């Protein structure tokens, strides 16, 4: 039985209420039907169909190569597996930065074809017009500040952001701007926990942290990292709840051995 089994469906309004009630929000990624079903059954409040699919599912070094069509496909798969969680889908790099009309077209496709309940966009003041256009069309938008992986070549590094006072001040101003534009929530990635606390207290919409300390209104992790399917990625903020890489490779090795020594299939497993 999940923690919120009495709640039929999580909405953007549910998340706002959770912040008001000081109840922490939980969020994990999913990119396919089977995983989404398990994540939803486990009781998370929101599922992010992240452009991290570019790394986790496709093996790219950055999130930049994934296309809108590919993100729509992943979102369709996830939505079919979910009965309770709010499904938020990333708009990938290049689908909203250039002009507000293109941004709206991308968001409409993600909602209409992908079946997403909301979209997530990286950036602050520099994409103000795009956010406004999408929100005005009645599409819920989740913001994303701090380390914005789509801007990796501009930053040149995945290190903690907003350590300098000027960047911290801009981040607070951007967070307040995103709230005023009508964003329903905000991801804060890899920023000092003191700053994340300040941001969370300065706005009325929920903040969801990843590497941003315990004072955010919620937490998000990449599912594959959290269950230990990825071995090479060990940032400070990651807590591994399972070691699936070892479990799965061990099971596969056992299967290989059983087939080689003609132990599988046995009589009971044969027709």
Q: Can you walk me through this structure?
A:
The protein has helices at residues 12-20, 33-41, 53-56, 68-81, 100-112, 128-136, 152-155, 165-181, 193-202, 223-226, 244-260, and strands spanning 25-29, 46-49, 86-90, 118-120, 141-146, 185-189, 207-210, 218-221. The protein has 271 residues and is α/β, with parallel strands linked by helices. Strand 6, helix 9 and strand 7 form a beta-alpha-beta unit. Helix 5 (100-112) crosses helix 6 and helix 8 (165-181) runs parallel beside helix 9 (193-202). Strands 1-2-3-4-5-6-7-8 form an eight-stranded parallel barrel, surrounded by seven helices. The protein is globular and about 65 Å long. The longest helix is centred in the middle third of the chain and has 17 residues, at 165-181. It folds into two domains: 12-240, Alpha-Beta Barrel (TIM Barrel); 246-271, no CATH class.
Kindly, what is the distance between the CA atoms of the first and last residues, rounded to a whole number of angstroms?
A: 37 Å
CATH architectural name of the largest domain: Alpha-Beta Barrel
The top level CATH class name of the largest domain? Alpha Beta
CATH level 3 topology of the largest domain: TIM Barrel
Please summarize the sheet with the most strands. Answer: 8 strands, parallel, barrel
Question: Roughly how much helix do the residues carry, as a percent range?
Answer: 40-55%
Q: Structural class of the helix and strand makeup?
A: alpha/beta
How many separate helices?
11
Sequence of secondary-structure elements: HEHEHHEHEHEHHEHEEHH
User: Could you report the average pLDDT, rounded to the nearest whole number?
Assistant: 94
Q: What portion of the residues fall into strands of 2 or more residues?
A: 5-15%
Shape: globular
Q: Specify the CATH homologous superfamily of the largest domain.
A: Phosphoenolpyruvate-binding domains
Radius of gyration, in angstroms, nearest whole number:
20 Å
- Write down the domain tally: 2
Low-confidence stretches: none
Count the strands?
8
């Amino acid at each position: 039985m999940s923690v919120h089994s009495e709640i039929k469906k999580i909405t953007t309004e549910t998340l706002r209420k959770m912040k008001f009630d000081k109840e922490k929000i939980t969020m994990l990624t999913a990119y396919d039907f089977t995983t989404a079903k398990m994540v939803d059954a486990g009781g998370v409040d929101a599922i992010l169909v992240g452009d991290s699919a570019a790394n986790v599912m496709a093996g790219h070094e950055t999130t930049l190569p994934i296309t809108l069509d590919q993100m729509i496909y992943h979102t369709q798969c996830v939505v079919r597996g979910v009965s309770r969680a709010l499904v938020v889908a990333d708009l990938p790099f290049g689908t909203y930065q250039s002009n507000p009309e293109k941004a709206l077209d991308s968001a409409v496709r993600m909602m209409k074809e992908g079946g997403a309940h909301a979209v997530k966009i990286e950036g602050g003041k520099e994409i103000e017009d795009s956010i406004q256009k999408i929100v005005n069309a009645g599409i819920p938008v989740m913001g994303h500040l701090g380390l914005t992986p789509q801007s990796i070549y501009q930053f040149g590094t995945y290190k903690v952001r907003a350590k300098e006072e000027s960047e911290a001040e801009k981040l607070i101003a951007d967070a307040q701007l995103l709230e005023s534009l009508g964003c329903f929530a905000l991801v804060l990635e890899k920023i000092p926990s003191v700053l994340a606390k300040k941001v969370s207290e300065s706005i009325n919409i929920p903040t969801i942290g990843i590497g941003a300390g315990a004072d955010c209104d919620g937490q998000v992790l990449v599912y594959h990292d959290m269950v230990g399917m990825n071995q090479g990625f060990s940032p400070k903020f990651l807590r591994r709840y399972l070691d699936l890489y070892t479990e799965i490779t061990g099971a596969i090795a056992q299967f290989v051995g059983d087939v080689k020594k003609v132990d599988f299939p046995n009589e009971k497993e044969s027709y």
